[in-house]
Write a structure and sequence with these properties.
elongated, 214 residues, 11 helices, mainly alpha, Four Helix Bundle (Hemerythrin (Met), subunit A)
């Protein structure tokens, strides 16, 4: 066994352990940290497979932005752990069924292979080890030429998800003091400020009463 295979098994074992701890950790902060560890090990596997662009993108996008955002959100929110775990055992059979179905589908796809592929594996491997081979260029050709329509469909789905997330956060709450900009534009000075004239005699009488009391 060469050193590449040894690193592959080490990274795979750490990745499986981190993925298991993500779903079994009782503290959500620890779960996010284990998820960051899992992403780092996946990036290392991408680098072993000579997919440098995917590995660096995984580190920069997920570890550098998304997971840090998740970590800050989890640490800032007051999450009730007991309320989240209340229905764990009730939903466990459904979760196991869906996990088993997903695993069977993955095994079936990997076992049957990809019959729609038109590139010979030997030719692809030879081209990958060529001196003038560029992984980023090859990935760009696959994404934006061969699989252009699936990429556009995925982009539309992500756009709909982003709009839905923004719409869910814009719910009207009674405890917030929101101001309508249209009302602010139409307001007049007389509606906001009213000057009252106080007669001098009233002020003098009030001062005299205070002196008598003193």
């Amino acid at each position: 066994m060469d050193f590449v295979s040894g690193f592959f098994y080490v990274f795979s074992v750490v990745l499986l352990f981190a993925a298991l701890r993500v779903i079994t950790a009782r503290n959500p902060v620890h779960a996010v940290l284990y998820l960051m560890l899992a992403f780092s090990q996946a990036a290392a596997l991408w680098l072993l497979l000579k997919a440098e662009f995917l590995g660096i993108a995984l580190v920069l996008v997920y570890l550098g932005a998304v997971m840090v955002l998740f970590l800050f959100v989890v640490m800032m929110l007051d999450i009730n752990i007991d309320a989240m775990r209340a229905g764990f055992w009730r939903h466990l059979p459904l979760a196991l069924l869906l996990g088993a179905l997903f695993s069977i589908e993955l095994i079936a796809v990997l076992w049957a292979g990809f019959p729609t592929a038109t590139v010979d594996a030997a030719v692809a491997t030879k081209a990958m080890h060529a001196p003038d081979h560029n992984n980023t260029h090859a990935l760009g050709v696959l994404l934006y030429r061969d699989y252009l329509y699936p990429i556009q469909v995925a982009a539309v789905i992500l756009l709909v998800a982003m709009v839905a997330a923004i719409a869910l956060t814009l719910r009207g709450r009674k405890d917030t003091k929101t101001i309508d900009p249209g009302v602010q534009v139409r307001v007049k000075a007389s509606d906001r400020l009213q000057v009252l004239r106080v007669p001098p005699a009233t002020v003098a009488a009030a001062d005299a009463a205070q002196e008598e009391q003193a």
